Each structure stands twice: as C-alpha cells, then as structure tokens.
Amino acid sequence: MTGQFVRLAETERPEIGFTLDGMKLTALAGDTVLTAVLMQRRAVRRSEFGDGPRAGFCLMGACQDCWIGDVDGRRFRACSTLVTDGMALVTLP
After folding, report:
1. pLDDT in tens, 54-85
2. In terms of Cα–Cα distance, which of 71, 72, 54, 52 is closest to 63?
3. Structural domains of the chain, count
4. Does residue 43 belong to any structural domain of this protein?
C-alpha cells in the first residue's frame, strides 16, 4: 500500500498495531492518527461536498478536514489525536 507520507526519521520508536476499516496496520508510538493513516493510504476520508479524497488541510487541529471515527462511534480530529495500540478506526462517509 502506498501512503501519502514517507517516514524519514524517528524510525527507532516502538511499533504498535491498530485497525483501519477492519484492516490490521502498524504505526510507531507517538504518531498521530493522521500520520498513521497517511503512512498507509493517500487519504483519510472522502469529501462530504463531492467525491474527492481528503487528507487533512491544516495538520494542526484548526480545520474540519481530518475527521475520523472509532468503532464506538466517536469522531475526532486525526491530526491532533495520538494513535494507541489496539485502536480501531473507521473512515467516515
């Protein structure tokens, strides 16, 4: 799978596991959810205003572009939430 981001540094951090839409993936401890997702995919979700992919805009929690959810139905900004081991994420429509 080819992601939007390429990791160039800090590769020694411990690896953790999470799922995205039921697919088992890995990230490094300390990654934001946005980093973890975009290391694997080119987008976080589809635009609600059209059919275009969205990959985050501001990358600092000021916009509404990187919303993602978890299997419990909670929504949050992927850019300002750290991924945790065992986290189960779902892309939002």
Report:
1. 777 787 888 888 889 999 999 999 999 999 99
2. 54
3. 1
4. yes
